[in-house]
Amino acid sequence: MVSSAACQRGLLVSGAVTLLVGVVAVTLHQRLYDSILDKRLHLTPDSEGYEFWRTLPVPIFMKFYMWNVTNSAEVVSSHARPVLEQLGPYVYSEKHLKVNMTWNANNTVTYQQVKTWHFEPDLSAGRLDDNVTSLNVPLLAAAALIKDMNLLVKFMFNELVNQVGSQIFVTKTARELLFDGYDDPLLEAAAVAKYLANISIPFDRFAWFYSRNGSNYYDGVFNMDTGAEVTQLGRLHYWNTTNATAAFQPPCNMINGSTGELFPPRRRRDHVELYSTDICRSLRIPYKEEMSVYGLGGYRYQADEMLFAAPQTNPDNWCFCTGDCPPAGLLNETLCRFGVPAFVSFPHMLYADPAVLDQTVGQEPNETLHNFNIAVEPLTGVPLAVRARLQINMLLRPDTDVVLLRNVSTVYVPMLWFENTVDVTPAIAARFSVIARVLPAVLSAGSVTLAALGGALLVAGLLLVGALRSRPAPTDGEPLLDDSTADGAAGER
């Protein structure tokens, strides 16, 4: 039988130990949770998040909207403003797959990425055989390439343009303009001219996304931090073996931020930064508001007019000018796109200089429909929803070297815009809810419970000690007998 002293000692020791553990847990449970979170987020070939990062198993769609110029003849003959008709969306489901991965000793991973697109007719508002009239991009690209060449080359170019019957506007199908591409005599001539002059056109056909579908090389080679130091998780160190591009002047040419698929955890209400290979620059997106998806809270970051603002409004943008600064709301992509006079803006030229918007008829900017935003779960840094929207515009302007372009008006003509959408699923949201909400709650509740249990055991032990000490102590010798018992005993004797 266990003695009362042993019970006292057991309660006091177990209570003290449990209370101590509980108090330590209450004090350090946040640090413990941070350690667990950091370990789970660290990307390795056998980590929990590896397969998620490798395949990105969430619904991704690319929605293309084409700008059809309905009065192209009048634009050329009488300098009329281009009247635009928006066609689409032409919706493609999109898949990502990381390939050719090398895990480096400096806690980075080097990899390539394969993107595949599949047309979704049931989600689309147009057919891929729709005809679209837009500027002749190969013509404008070739005109830009010969600008600094000698008179003989320019003469031969004009003869070629005249011989093949090139026009300022062309009519092609949406299918040809998006992925399939179309043959153009000027591209064929450029393939020959690259041996005669110092020019290089990497395509034999033209389409905005030509040769990208299923390619493992188009997006380039990435070198990304795996998050052994969690504040660096997802950070892009190099793209195509460099940490800077030739598209812009320093420091605007630096490759900063993530690829947009991973962000460091414990986000603040300041900004997120990602690098876009399509436009050769980093995008710093400021905090907008709180939001939630399937009960999982997040921070929405949304681009504003400062991203593509003129240097007079945003002095940090001076190094994006690439020579002459474009109007507000436009980003000069000439050096990013092989010399093609392309300019990026938000769709419908949202936030652009009103004078530029007024050069065409038909654009109707709407901040809700045309902004660029990304929602992130702040504790883990996992993207919850993405609406990446950009528009490609071409600059049509007089060119004295090209007969066909000598008398045109100066117009920034929209070509197409796209919306890349990513949305977390309920199942994935539930998984991250366990990490972001359930696990810290369990650790907190467990710590408090341990402390309370330890306190209760300790109090019970102290009460037991007090109760035992309050009982009267027994005297030495035999116990006293009552009078009747004593008298009986005397009679017997």
TrEMBL record:
How does this protein sit in the membrane?
Answer: Multi-pass membrane protein
Which GO molecular-function terms appear in the entry?
A: scavenger receptor activity
Write out the transmembrane intervals.
441-465
Q: Where in the cell is it found?
A: Cell membrane
Report the SS bond pairs. Answer: C252-C319, C280-C336, C321-C325
Cite the Pfam families for this sequence. Answer: CD36
User: What domain of life does the UniProt record list for this protein's source?
Assistant: Eukaryota
* Regions annotated as coiled coil: none
Query: What GO cellular component term, any one, is given?
Result: cytoplasm
Name the keywords, alphabetized: Cell membrane, Disulfide bond, Glycoprotein, Membrane, Receptor, Transmembrane, Transmembrane helix
Member of which family?
A: Belongs to the CD36 family.
Instruction: Please state what the protein is called.
Output: Protein croquemort
Organism in which the protein naturally occurs: Amphibalanus amphitrite
Question: Could you read off the lineage of the organism from its UniProt record?
Answer: Eukaryota, Metazoa, Ecdysozoa, Arthropoda, Crustacea
